[in-house]
DNA sequence: TTGTAAGCGTTATCAA
DNA sequence: TTGATAACGCTTACAA
């Protein structure tokens, strides 16, 4: 069994008493084969446990059916939920996901990516906010279609799926003001990815429009610990903020925990807090965080349907950009509502 | 470019002025090729952007380098951290991960798995607790090596990686008793996977040995919401527990939140809580949960190194079982420590 | 050390 | 509708 565990179309053909092309046609959608032949082939295939070899198939068709998911921080709630959604929808579309972790930045990223290229993935979906241009170039150069999620890239070719980060952030200013807040703050990471910066910029300019200044603080990654540090900095200001918009939910959770447990601040009475992503934890009763929901299912759907379109018959598909809305999920970390 | 984006060994050979076998040998570890030839080949390959086609290579060698990760609930903190660890280590070992989501149980699991089989994955790693025997059979029958994580399966062939769930759970009884707790409870999910049941059983029997009864309650999935429901049930008992061991950290978080916010119970003063997995949230200051750490890196290492071993030269590798320790991570959800 | 040639399991083309 | 045949890009005897 370790010697030859796999059944080939040849063997199926022999058992069914037909040619191997008949077998191939049976498993090729839209090929012409008589009901009788098909029946016999299917029967033989079933009995032998035959599975079409996609390695060989991909070689022939120059189309592997493999889609490469390039992602950093995949242990993170938002990232992992996006991976889940995309993987599921790819499966539903008859494709399969390959996973490439880009956590380490020391060239091993490049190595892993080349590894994926060797498998002739039809496409790559870049879920990470990593602003590394060489990655996208490498994918494109190898004939892969490319989907960039939350990356404000203006290159030609890839599908770009973005959120209305800035607009969403702007809407939040109104909510804060309506709650009676006057001293607004923005707690950001230093990562500087386009979507993070768009949230900051959208928030700050909208506030300015309404005649309110915003204190902006940036620190570290987009995780929980950064939120704690940012709280240290913002909550010790002489003019302490009464409303803070955190660039991610994880930052918001860290911020809230520090505010409550270290500064004994009551939320939302003394401080209103909002986040972004709507991770599962945002709904936990310790946080009840008002936040913007990432439409992960919609993002996945856009990506997968675009990949399903044949770019030969649809030239517009070669260069496409989609903007989705992040809806505000109201919970009790902001007064009123 | 959309026509023929990939460079073949043939083209590299022509440019380097050698035969295509020379090219192949250059990229085959341990093949004999002169330094001069190698240099010219590498140079040409570099210039052309050549990448060995692993589809074709896998076809020849009957070894794809693909490892299939079969997993449900991959958006969950513990699952996603395990996926991250395994994916990274596979990359380091020169292999690549394929991701199969088994969330939907309605035959689409089977479909997705067959999809993976078609790619002739060398191995499958089952990360999910899904006790579906047909899946393991299907993998084995198709000549894949198999790794079962946290599945108490006694089949021959696969590598089985398990934790000392029962022993760990037993140790916790001592900790609870030392904290002065007398009314012990176990909050479990209804999922009934081997590791969950081992935790329950280990806890209950260890307590019995020490002359203490345990109230066991089971409900729903292994998630946060189940914890809330379990809290409703256990904290309304006439003899209210003063210590509860939750089968997973997510259950523990839900339990703690309900205990505090609905029952105004102070932790750890009035109630000691412990969990299992050591997810990131367990360290958050709202929880500070004492819990057992899943050794995800060690699990991943065991799996990947086993896959790297050639089973032909190491017959014992065909049937191997590993038991790892879950270490108790002390935080402040239990008195003392 | 090198090149030639066969074969891996497919699908597409083309007669029959 | 069917079967033979030629690719696809690779590795590996085998011969030079």
From TrEMBL, chains A, B:
Q: Does the keyword Transcription regulation apply?
A: yes
Q: What PROSITE patterns is this protein classified in?
A: HTH_LACI_2
**What are the entry keywords?**
DNA-binding, Plasmid, Repressor, Transcription, Transcription regulation
Query: What are the protein's GO molecular function terms?
Result: DNA-binding transcription factor activity; transcription cis-regulatory region binding
- List the SMART domains: HTH_LACI (SM00354)
Q: Which InterPro entries match?
A: HTH_LacI, LacI/GalR-like_sensor, Lambda_DNA-bd_dom_sf, Peripla_BP_I
Q: Name one Pfam family in it.
A: LacI
Task: Enumerate the PANTHER family for this protein.
Answer: LACI-RELATED TRANSCRIPTIONAL REPRESSOR, RIBOSE OPERON REPRESSOR
Q: What is this protein called?
A: LacI family DNA-binding transcriptional regulator
């Amino acid at each position: 069994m370790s010697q030859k565990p796999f059944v080939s179309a040849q063997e199926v053909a022999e058992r069914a008493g037909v040619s191997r092309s008949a077998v191939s046609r049976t498993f090729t959608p839209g090929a012409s084969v008589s009901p009788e032949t098909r029946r016999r082939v299917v029967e033989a295939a079933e009995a032998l446990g035959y599975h079409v070899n996609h390695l060989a198939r991909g070689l022939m068709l120059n189309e592997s059916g493999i889609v490469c998911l390039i992602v950093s921080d995949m242990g993170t709630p938002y990232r992992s939920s996006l991976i889940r959604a995309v993987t599921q929808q790819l499966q539903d579309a008859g494709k399969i996901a390959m996973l490439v972790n880009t956590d380490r930045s020391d060239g091993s990223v490049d190595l892993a990516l080349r590894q994926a290229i060797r498998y002739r993935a039809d496409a790559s979906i870049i879920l990470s906010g990593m602003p590394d241009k060489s990655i996208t170039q490498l994918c494109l150069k190898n004939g892969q279609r490319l989907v960039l999620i939350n990356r404000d890239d203006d290159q030609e070719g890839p599908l770009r799926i973005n959120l209305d980060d800035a607009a969403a952030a702007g809407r939040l200013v109104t909510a804060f003001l309506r709650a009676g807040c006057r001293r607004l703050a923005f707690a950001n990471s230093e990562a500087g990815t386009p979507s993070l910066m768009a949230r900051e910029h959208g928030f700050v300019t909208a506030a300015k429009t309404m005649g309110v200044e915003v204190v902006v603080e940036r620190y570290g990654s987009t995780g929980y610990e950064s939120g704690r540090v940012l709280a240290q900095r913002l909550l010790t200001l002489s003019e302490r903020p009464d409303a803070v918009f955190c660039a991610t939910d994880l930052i918001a959770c860290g911020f809230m925990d520090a505010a409550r447990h270290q500064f004994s601040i009551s939320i939302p009475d003394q401080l209103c807090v909002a986040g972004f992503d709507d991770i599962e934890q945002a709904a936990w009763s310790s946080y009840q965080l008002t936040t913007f929901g990432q439409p992960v299912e919609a993002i996945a759907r856009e990506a997968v349907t675009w990949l399903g379109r044949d770019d030969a018959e649809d030239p517009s598909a070669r260069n496409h950009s989609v903007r989705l809305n992040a809806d505000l999920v109201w919970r009790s970390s902001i007064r009123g509502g």
